[in-house]
Every structure is written in structure tokens, then in C-alpha cells.
Write a structure and sequence with these properties.
The protein is of the alpha+beta class and about 180 residues long. The chain has 6 helices and 11 strands. It has a 3-stranded antiparallel β-sheet. The N and C termini lie far apart (about 45 Å).
């Protein structure tokens, strides 16, 4: 692996599985799965290193047959997340003060370079996400009402809820 850290290799794999599969000479199927053999043949990653990356967190899944891998969310390329699900009544979104200003000016939480907005089941997890860019701002999302109003929410395999956007009428600042 040379001198690349696990974190660097994880970011490299995320870039392939979320944004640029062509950099590994592969394509994603409609659900976002990529062939591990193709990735290994066209990059510095080995099956063993991919296994270490998957074991180190919750961002990726390996198919039951061990031949394919996918990122659970964060895609900028089209991926089918399955059928909408009924979410908890309240979900949370973590952002920064600057991000919150953008939400207010745009009238919605938007995916910002991704295809879907990520929502957490806990304020603590949303705070972790929001703190990546400074002091976190936690937003409560009326996910139950969104669902009843026909706005689709999807559940990723690692428990993150996804939606195309969250109109401001469903959002309130939690603090």
C-alpha cells in the first residue's frame, strides 16, 4: 500500500464509489454496486485493503457473495435507493452557521453536490456531522409530516435517512 493511510485509501474508495467509478475502470449498477475485482485490477487497492476499509467504519457494504462493494450514501451519480420508507416523526440534520444561512436563503436543505440530503435519527449524530465545518447547528426535520405529504425518504443500510431535499416548512432550529 505504500505510505497511504487507511483514511486516505477510504477517501479514495469513496471517490470511486460515490462520484467517479470510471477512475477505477468500472461502472456502478443501478443500486450503486461495483465489482471489487475491477477496482483492484485498476487501482492500488487490494481485496485485503478494501476489507480493512469496510471493517473500519459504516460507509460501505460488501455483497453477500463478496464480489461487489457499494457506498451506502453520499453519491453525486444516480443511484437507486429502493422504495421510500416511513421515517421516525423527527429526524435531524447537522450543519454549520454558514450552512444554516444558505438553507434560509434557498428555502430548503439541499444536497449540495450530492444527490440526497442526509438525515440522522439522533441530534448527537447530526452534531458530529455539523461540527466538521465549525460550530454545529442542529436542525429538527418533521420527517413524519414530509412522508405523509408524499416526499420520499429512504433508509440506507447504515441507518441514515436520505431525501432529495427538505423544504424549509419542515425544518426548525433545534437549539
Amino acid at each position: 500500500m505504500g505510505n497511504k493511510t487507511l483514511s486516505e485509501d477510504s477517501r479514495f474508495l469513496a471517490d470511486i464509489l460515490r462520484h467517479h467509478p470510471e477512475r477505477a475502470g468500472c461502472a456502478l449498477d443501478p443500486e450503486g454496486w461495483a465489482d471489487i475485482g475491477t477496482i483492484c485490477a485498476n487501482t492500488r487497492l487490494t481485496r485485503e485493503r478494501i476489507g480493512e476499509i469496510v471493517a473500519s467504519g459504516t460507509r460501505y457494504g460488501i455483497s453477500d457473495d463478496g464480489l461487489r462493494i457499494r457506498a451506502y450514501h453520499g453519491h453525486s451519480v444516480p443511484v437507486d435507493y429502493g422504495e421510500p420508507v416511513e421515517p421516525p416523526e423527527i429526524l435531524y440534520h447537522g450543519t454549520s452557521e454558514r450552512g444554516y444561512g444558505g438553507i434560509l436563503s434557498s428555502g430548503a436543505i439541499l444536497p449540495m453536490g450530492r444527490r440526497m440530503v442526509h438525515l440522522s435519527v439522533s441530534a448527537e449524530r447530526a452534531s458530529d456531522v455539523g461540527s466538521r465545518r465549525g460550530e454545529p447547528v442542529i436542525l429538527e426535520v418533521d420527517a413524519g409530516r414530509m412522508h405523509r405529504d408524499g416526499l420520499g425518504l429512504y433508509l440506507s443500510a447504515d441507518g441514515v435517512y436520505l431525501t432529495e431535499k427538505v423544504p424549509a416548512e419542515y425544518v426548525r432550529r433545534a437549539d
